[in-house]
Design a protein that fits this description.
Helices cover about 45% and strands about 10% of the residues. The chain contains 12 helices and 11 strands. It binds adenosine-5'-diphosphate, 2-acetamido-2-deoxy-1-O-phosphono-alpha-D-glucopyranose and magnesium ion (MG).
Length: about 375
C-alpha cells in the first residue's frame, strides 16, 4: 500500500482499520481507489479529483452532497440507493493535500455489480430505469447547481474549443487528420441546429447526470436490478437528452468505445429499444413533447460530441483523457465515428421504436 494513500485516507472520518488501498475501475478522468477495512467496518472509495478537468472541486462536491442528500430523503435504502459522501476530519466534503490535489471519499456499496459494457437487453433496460429514476428523484430539486465544467454538453461551446484546437494545431496532427476533421465539419450545421433547441428553451433544463456510461451505474448483485447512479461529478442542470444520448452511445454499441477493429462496432437496435423502454418506464410521466421527439436524435448528437472530443484531444496532444498508447484518442475517434454512422443509418427505425414505446407508456 502506498504510504501517501494511507495518509490521505486517514484525513477522512473512516470507520475501522484500513487493510488495503488499491486502484479500481477504468475511469478516464479521476484516480479511483478502493479502501478496504478490517472486520465489519464499511469499505470506501477514495478519489483524486482531476483538478485540470474540474476547476472548482469544492463546488462540485457541494453539488454531489446536495443531490445525494435529496435522494436519500426519498428512497427506501438511503445507504444503497445513492452515494454517501464521507467528510474529511475538518468537516469539509473533500481534502486538499500539500501538493494542492483534491481528494474525496464515499462509502463503498457492497454486493453490487459493475460493468464496462452492456451485454444483454435486460441490462440495457435496467440502465434506462436507473437514469430515468435518477432524473425523476431529482425532478423536484430546486437549489442551483454549480456548472462544474463549462459548456460540458454545449455544442456551440464545443465548436469554439474545436475551432481553437484546429487553428492552434498544438500537436502538429491537423494535416494528417484531414479526413477525420471533415467528419466534424460536414455535420456542424445539423448539430448546431439541434443545439438551438437547448439555447431557445424548447428543451427544458432539469437536474441531469451527464456521464451515463454503464460503468457509472451500480446493479444489485442479488436481484440484478439497477441500484443507483454513481460518479456524480458532472451532475448539473441540463437537458435530459444528454443523459439519454450518452447512455445510448454506450449501451447500444456492439463493440468497445475504443475498438481498433471497426467491424465490431455498430448500433444495436435491440439494445436501443431495451434502453429506451427502461428509461421511459420511469421518465414518460415527466418528459415534455420536445424531449420525447428528440430521444432518438440524442444518441446521434452525443456520439457526435464524443467523436469531436476525442479528436480534439488528439489534436491538442492528449491533454484531457487518460490514454493507454499514443494513438489511443485517434482509435477512439474512429470507433465512435463508426458508431455515429450506424446510428445515422438506423435513425428512422430508432424513431419508430420511440413512437411504439411512447404509445406503450402513454396509452
Ligand atoms: P471514475 O471517475 O474513475 O470513472 P467512478 O466513480 O466511476 O470513477 O468509479 C469507478 C468504478 O468504481 C465504478 O465503475 C464502480 O465499479 C466502482 N465504484 C465507484 N464508486 C463505488 C461505490 N460507492 N460503491 C461500489 N463501487 C463503486
Ligand atoms: C469520461 O470519467 P469517466 O471515465 O466516467 C468523461 C465523459 C466521456 C467518457 C468517455 C468528466 O468519463 O464525458 O463521455 O469519459 N468525463 C468527463 O468514455 O469528461
Ligand atoms: Mg466513472
Amino acid at each position: 500500500m502506498t504510504e501517501n494513500y494511507l495518509d490521505i485516507a486517514s484525513r477522512f472520518e473512516l470507520q475501522g482499520e484500513i487493510s488495503e488501498i488499491k486502484p479500481l475501475g477504468e475511469g478516464f478522468i479521476n484516480d479511483t481507489l478502493i479502501v478496504r477495512t478490517k472486520g465489519d467496518a464499511p469499505d470506501y472509495i477514495l478519489q483524486r479529483k482531476n483538478k485540470a478537468v474540474f476547476p472548482d472541486v469544492p463546488a462540485m462536491m457541494n453539488n454531489i452532497s446536495m443531490v445525494t442528500n435529496h435522494i436519500k430523503a426519498k428512497v427506501a435504502d438511503p445507504m444503497r440507493e445513492t452515494l454517501t459522501v464521507v467528510p474529511a476530519k475538518d468537516g469539509k466534503n473533500y481534502y486538499r493535500d500539500a501538493d494542492g490535489e483534491f481528494w474525496a471519499v464515499c462509502t463503498f456499496i457492497p454486493d453490487t455489480l459493475s460493468y464496462t459494457q452492456a451485454d444483454s437487453p435486460e441490462l440495457a433496460y435496467q440502465g434506462g430505469v436507473g437514469i430515468g429514476r435518477f432524473q425523476s428523484l431529482l425532478s423536484d430539486f430546486k437549489q442551483p447547481l454549480a456548472e462544474v465544467i463549462k459548456g460540458f454538453h454545449n455544442l456551440p461551446w464545443r465548436f469554439k474549443q474545436w475551432d481553437e484546437a484546429v487553428k492552434n494545431d498544438a500537436a502538429g496532427r491537423v494535416a494528417a487528420c484531414a479526413e477525420e476533421i471533415s467528419w466534424i465539419e460536414s455535420r456542424r450545421e445539423r448539430i448546431l441546429a439541434f443545439a438551438q433547441l437547448v439555447e431557445d428553451g424548447t428543451l427544458p433544463m432539469r437536474v441531469t447526470h451527464n456521464d451515463t456510461k454503464i460503468s457509472n451505474i451500480l446493479f444489485d448483485a442479488d436481484t440484478r436490478e439497477v441500484l443507483c447512479a454513481i460518479d456524480l461529478d458532472t451532475v448539473m442542470s441540463a437537458t435530459v437528452l444528454n443523459d439519454v444520448g450518452d447512455a445510448l452511445r454506450c449501451y447500444t454499441n456492439t463493440g468497445a468505445e475504443d475498438a481498433p477493429d471497426l467491424d465490431t462496432v455498430s448500433m444495436s437496435l435491440d439494445m436501443f429499444r431495451a434502453y429506451i423502454d427502461g428509461y421511459l418506464s420511469e421518465a414518460a410521466s415527466f418528459l415534455c413533447p420536445a424531449e420525447i421527439e428528440n430521444l432518438a436524435f440524442s444518441g446521434i448528437y452525443i456520439t457526435f460530441e464524443q467523436v469531436l472530443r476525442f479528436l480534439m484531444d488528439y489534436l491538442n496532444g492528449d491533454t484531457y483523457y487518460k490514454i493507454k498508447y499514443p494513438e489511443h484518442n485517434l482509435v477512439r475517434t474512429r470507433a465512435q465515428f463508426k458508431l455515429l454512422c450506424s446510428m445515422e443509418e438506423q435513425y428512422s427505425e430508432m424513431c419508430k421504436v420511440v413512437d411504439e414505446l411512447v404509445a406503450k407508456y402513454r396509452s
